[in-house]
Amino acid sequence: MSTPELPFSDLRVARKRMLTQDTVLFELQHPQGHTLPAFTAGAHLTVETPAGVRRNYSLCSDPANLRSCQIAVKRDAHGRGGSIAMADRLAEGSLITVSQPRNNFELEPRAQQVLFIAGGIGITPILSMMRHLKRLGVVPFRLIYCTRDEAHSAFLPELQHEFPGLTTLHHDGGKLASALDLWPEFETPGTAHVYCCGPKGLMDSVADMSGHWPSGSIHFESFGIDASTLPTNTAFTVTLQKSGEKVAVGTTQSILEALRASGHRVASSCESGTCGTCRTTLLAGEADHRDMVLLDDEKARHIMVCVSRARTSELVLDL
Known about the structure:
Number of strands: 18
Order of helices and strands: EEEEEHEEHEHEHEHEEEHEEEEE
Structural class: alpha/beta
Radius of gyration: 20 Å
Number of helices: 6
Shape: globular
Strand content: 25-35%
Oligomer: single chain
């Protein structure tokens, strides 16, 4: 079953600040100064970027503050343009269209202690969670934060100031051989709930090491498949069965973006392959599935047009 499309509204960029050389903090407020919609720690917004594409960004501010909210965007020079447009084109005072908050990474209310593991920009939802837990002052927590180096460590001053003594920082210099060995944390199953957000390699490592932990105690946040692990994009054609129209999909376009450019509307929400809103019936052709939703037995007949592509020169869709 697909997820209903969320309502969107405009927020104003009240502040824009560089956190690192490639990560930008945006503080958002209601244009008329109204209170923002409530959200819970770990939630994210779907943002319509200045490039015209939708991207998910975690809220990193304390949920108790509804006068404004904060997101952080890492400028990905090798991405599809959404983060570049946010970093380069979105200025203070601009309006940006965002969805209602949604949370797929909720804190377990019964947890007696929490271990956070963040990699790179994965610190964003975890920072909101840490701020929430500190304000409540009931559940002990600590953070392991893995980054390339100090210069690429977003929110480092905030972590040192707000959570002294609670953060273990590890720099790997961008080398796999220097990655932190997390096995000592997972060798003996503990009572803590673990929340991990970061690159696919880090989350895969935590998943592999924690298989013997109690069910439901390990939690992950992922907005889709790591693009660096995917094959190079090639152009292909989508044929719309109901009209016979053929739509060309370029190497830098998603099927959804190509359909929009041709005047066709397909319901969508996350545009990262995680919600299921854009599920479309696949009638012919072989899809290159890049979503996090479809089960194996569904992939022959369905496709998520926001992220998935074609392995053949043509796909025929029930549109």
